[in-house]
Amino acid sequence: MPEYKAPLREFKFILDEVLEMPAHYASLPAYADLATPDMVDAIINEGAKFCENIIAPLNRSGDIEGCTHHADGSVTTPTGFKDAYDKYVEAGWCSLAHDEEFGGQGLPESLGLVMTEMVSTANWSWGTYPGLSHGAMNTIHAWGTPEQKETYMLPLVSGEWTGTMCLTESHCGSDLGLMKSKAEPNADGSYAITGSKIFITSGEHDVAGNIVHIVLARIAGAPAGTKGISLFIVPKFLPTESGAIGERNEVKCGSIEHKMGMHGSATCVMNFDGAKGWLIGPENKGLNCMFTFMNTARIGTALQGVSTSEGSFQGALTYAKDRLAMRSLTGAKFPEKAADPIIVHPDVRKMLLTQKAFTEGGRALLYLTAKQNDLVKVGNTEEERKAADDLLGFLTPIAKAFLTEAGLESANYGVQVYGGHGFIQEWGMEQIVRDARISTLYEGTTGIQALDLLGRKVMMTQGQSLKNFTKMIHTFCKEEEGNEELAMYTAKLNELNKEWGNLTTQIGMAAMKDRDEVGSASVDYLMYSGYVTLAYMWAIIARVAQKKLAEGTTEEDFYKAKLVTARFYFTRILPRTLTHANTMLAGADTLMDLDAEHFSF
User: How far apart are CA 204 and CA 253, in angstroms?
Assistant: First the structure.
């Protein structure tokens, strides 16, 4: 099993040098006195120790043991999970990036995301138990009444309670307008929630004292479709007036799913049988409110893509340096050994560099979104908050879908580097693939994210959200005019930046005649967008590395590696945009002309 080591130097590079987070924190009064460089370093270093020593050792054992569903509806997590969670709560990790008025430490969410990345890479299944609570808290904070915040925020922030997101049902998948769960008004102002929800991550478990379900349901008489959905808080145990845990609510786990991966995470069928719940947000606006939760979860899922790449890269790199097989084509590199380590072979190098490029570029993109999240929350002006929110909205579907697809590719390369050993359990690489496979599915599949990007974020804004981002890329390239060492990056970025707009226009024109053109182009459009966005991040990384080398540094190898990886990305990975550009313009007829009844086997 790969031994996880937190990439501390990489964190410092991205946060301090690429995204200039110390200056970012200093510019925000809410964080200036809290998120000092020394404090940030201390938190990340301590978090690394916790993840390496407490969470990571449970990864394989949790996968083998899995969760257990009992006849009474209770679920037992794998051995060690509850004890690790207790230590996590005791150390205050749950409250790191939440408001002080609710018992939080008031630190930036971008800093909290670093801790979440380390947890996720060390043990994604374990991380799901505290992970969904973040979205529940954001939703209650944004839409809850003062009484609801007082009741639920404190125990959620402390980690005494955890949260879930209960959306879909067996017959509707991503089409939530088809859901049937209903809510009947009670005399006391609460509602009786009845229905079954599936695929509920951490819906039932033994790690925390209470579970707060955020549930979509339809109030009697509400309009059909998505316009008639409301949102409810439905706790496992009803809180007493003092906020303590009271009687058991009528919500139980009917079963847990037997999944391809993430065996240590309880994915539940949750049955609500007249369970008492409270409306959160306006009636019939539940889907709007739930997007607060879903957008939090989508960034969290994007994080899984980066975590997958990181974990697989660490395992593959260690193995490639140690495994002996054949000789280098240019002559023995280690003549004293029976054969050369496989890292000397070009194809192995290509796989490792792909993992490295996706991991480090993806991390830069992920923390760029986190930086926007900070600004949305505590930006100094309304204009600054609005601009950050628009950019975050545009980048979220790209980050969620592209980074998870890239993470899955990295995970498969991890197995390939190991060869036959990668296919068996003891090395842990096949578990990474199994655990990663869900990331391209949940919180909206790649296809759903692609429709969100092209249909809602681009077409419905008349391309304004795209223009705002391509303007950032154009400004970067303009600033570097005359920098010959960056010319290979800026020239290609300029070219793709213009093409991105042209492709969007062509799709838009075609869609005016046939709306299926949007659906047929969307996934290729998203992947194209992802490759260009990551190219922008790698160009920024290259600029930083070039500057450091020019100034003189004791870490020449570190910065030279950034330049080599940037060059690899631009020459070996970015050309994939050529295929996506061609296929997104191939036309809907190439997909839709075959009648459904003529599909056969």
Answer: 6
Identify whether 100 is a catalytic site residue: no
DSSP assignment of 550-565 = HH--S-HHHHHHHHHH
Q: Which residues pair with 197 in a beta bridge?
A: 270
A 10 A CB-CB count for 226 gives: 16
Tokens encoding 556: 């020449």
Number of C-alpha atoms within 13 angstroms, CB side, residue 68? Answer: 8
- Report the C-alpha gap between 294 and 135 in whole angstroms: 7
Q: Report, as an integer, the average pLDDT of 126-151.
A: 94
Lowest mean per-residue pLDDT among 280-294, 364-378, 420-434, 534-548: 280-294
| pLDDT higher than 80, residue 298 | yes
Pairing of strands 245-248, 237-239: antiparallel
Kindly tell me if the per-residue pLDDT of 29 is higher than 90: yes
DSSP type of residue 341? B
Question: In sequence order, what are the beta bridge partners of 195?
Answer: 272
Rounded CA-CA distance 531/357 in Å is 11
Please identify which of the residues 117, 169, 310, 443 carries the catalytic annotation. Answer: 443
Task: Tell whether 530 is covered by a domain.
Answer: yes
pLDDT score for 2 = 82
Residue 530: give the domain boundaries. Answer: 461-591
Contact status, residue 128 vs residue 265, Cβ threshold 8 Å:
yes
| Distance between CA atoms of residues 446 and 398, nearest Å | 9
Task: Characterize the bridge pairing of strands 251-256 and 267-279.
Answer: antiparallel
The pLDDT of residue 68: 98
Name the domain count of the chain. Answer: 1
- The pair of structure tokens assigned to 175 is 């089409």
Residue 47's pLDDT is 98
- What's the chain's Rg over C-alpha atoms? 24
> Is it the case that residue 24 has pLDDT exceeding 90?
yes
Retrieve residue 537's tokens: 């991040």
Q: What is the pLDDT of residue 176?
A: 84
For residue 172 the two structure tokens come to 């509707």
Tokens 């809410």 — which residue? 30
Torsion of Cα atoms, 19 then 134 then 442 then 10, to 10°: 30
Sorting pLDDT into bands at 50, 70 and 90, what band is 575?
Answer: very high
Domain contains 538: yes
Tell me what the pLDDT averaged over the chain comes to.
96
- Which pLDDT band holds residue 109 (cuts at 50, 70, 90)? very high
Residue 561 maps to a domain: yes
Coil, helix or strand for 115? helix
Helices and strands: H and E segment counts in the chain: 20, 11
C-alpha to C-alpha distance for 71 and 492, rounded to whole angstroms: 60
Evaluate whether 89 touches 207 at the Cβ level (below 8 Å): no
pTM score: 0.97
Calculate the alpha carbon distances from 490 to 147, 369, 587 in Å.
53, 22, 31
Of 133, 433, 78, 409, the C-alpha closest to 263 is 78
Instruction: State yes or no: pLDDT of 346 exceeds 80.
Output: yes
Query: Strand 230-235 and strand 210-219: pairing?
Result: antiparallel
Nearest to 474 by CA among 498, 455, 444: 498
**Statement: residue 107 has pLDDT above 90:** yes
**Spatial contact of 492 and 535, defined as CB atoms under 8 Å apart:** yes
**562 within a domain of the structure (yes/no):** yes
Other residues' Cβ atoms within 10 Å of the Cβ of residue 512: 8
